[in-house]
DNA sequence: CCATGAAATGAGAGTAACTATCAAAACAGG
DNA sequence: CCTGTTTTGATAGTTACTCTCATTTCATGG
């Protein structure tokens, strides 16, 4: 008997009837590869999972896996939130302070991701801590997000998006956000990522400040 | 005839007579591998350079190359400045503002690196822009620097180095510094890296500010 | 319903980074 | 010079990833 790939994805396949059969199959294949990868990684860990195993469980050939994702890390890390973030950032009122916009958009994006698949963010953060190759690639994908950030920041402040100042501002934000993800994973996913992000943005906006009443104290 | 590996390193081999022959040979091998890699990468590019070629030019076996460096990227990116930075950071007066200490130490470290080998920083930044694998690994090595930064920052401010706030502050700095390096390389290494770093630290300390008189203007 | 062109897939061979193992060579110390 | 320890080299193996080409699968017009 043929085993189902068991895609308990939030979308039912009939949701998109306007797409041709070809397009629908491509989407299904993509999701099957990702689902197979997530499952195998949870079972055996990232390094122990080979492309062959992924292909087998997703019921495609190894060639096809590479046709859909350029690297093994990308299977885990790829998503489509960047355009969403940029759109939301542009939709914010012109006169809103930049960091407030970022706060707002980050919260919305995190909520969205959490609603679609609450496991994914955790798995990524976890692998980002455990697997160097993933961490590296994670950073790489964050720099792409950084490029969007500097576009939006440049529009908002009327500066050149390629200026050193804008680029550094955007990338410093990205660095801080990356650290939030690592912190979250290293501390057993305690607390809401959304709240940690908020605290991080506060620090990046105002600096550490002389004292932080709610923060932890130096170890004794 | 046997070709010399031509290590025009600032240290002459006789500089360290207190080390045994074994230790001296190891240092020489390490430098030979690095020199061979730099030369080959300049000639052919990073991807086209194989470990075998590196081994051949350095006159060692491929096994030995991997014994000295865990990955190909590490041959290009490894250095020993982190401990120096930490020491200098700790040597700064207790009451100096944190960002001033960072500014000071960064300038000293960049100068030191520039004096030892002015090409290396450029090559790294260049490859960081061109080669994704290098860029990723570059980031990875920066996060290690970030760990030092948060130690120093925690000591200075009396906070827990593992607190979210300290970690985010340190990593945001790293993100900004990384971007400086990329900016420098993408703009043909125009201007002194030291000066760009200074501008970056200003932005990270005070934010973009309402106007930047000396900065470039939005493209027309 | 079928024929034709285009797109997607699978199979195979190949490259290169990296690992593990083990025997030979180079050194250190007596 | 002899002995024990380090360091090296050779070899075989794994796996991510690339390239090529024949086969299959879908789209479309008659």
TrEMBL record, chains A, B:
Residues 1-22 are annotated as: Disordered. The keyword Signal does not apply. Residues 27-87 form the HTH tetR-type domain. Pfam families: TetR_C_14 (PF17754), TetR_N (PF00440). Keywords: DNA-binding, Transcription, Transcription regulation. Transmembrane segments: none annotated. Residues 1-11 have a biased composition (Polar residues). Residues 50-69 bind DNA. This is TetR family transcriptional regulator. It comes from Streptomyces musisoli.
């Amino acid at each position: 008997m043929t085993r189902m790939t068991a895609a308990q994805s939030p979308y039912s396949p009939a949701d998109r009837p306007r797409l041709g059969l070809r397009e629908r199959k491509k989407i299904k294949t993509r999701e099957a590869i990702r689902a197979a990868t997530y499952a195998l990684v949870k079972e055996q860990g990232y390094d122990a999972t080979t492309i062959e195993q992924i292909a087998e469980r997703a019921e495609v050939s190894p060639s096809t896996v590479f046709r859909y994702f350029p690297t093994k890390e990308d299977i885990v890390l790829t998503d489509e939130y960047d355009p969403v973030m940029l759109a939301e950032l542009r939709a914010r009122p012109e006169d809103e302070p930049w960091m407030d916009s970022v706060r707002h958009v980050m919260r919305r994006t995190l909520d969205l991701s959490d609603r679609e698949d609450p496991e994914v963010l955790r798995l990524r953060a976890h692998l980002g801590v455990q697997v160097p190759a993933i961490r590296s690639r994670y950073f790489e994908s964050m720099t792409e997000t950084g490029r969007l950030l500097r576009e939006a920041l440049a529009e908002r402040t009327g500066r050149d998006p390629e200026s050193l100042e804008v680029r550094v501002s955007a990338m410093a934000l990205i660095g801080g956000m990356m650290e939030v993800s690592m912190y979250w994973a290293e501390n057993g996913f305690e607390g809401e990522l959304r709240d940690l992000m908020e605290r991080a943005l506060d620090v990046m906006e105002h600096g550490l400040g002389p004292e932080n009443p709610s923060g932890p104290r130096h170890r004794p």
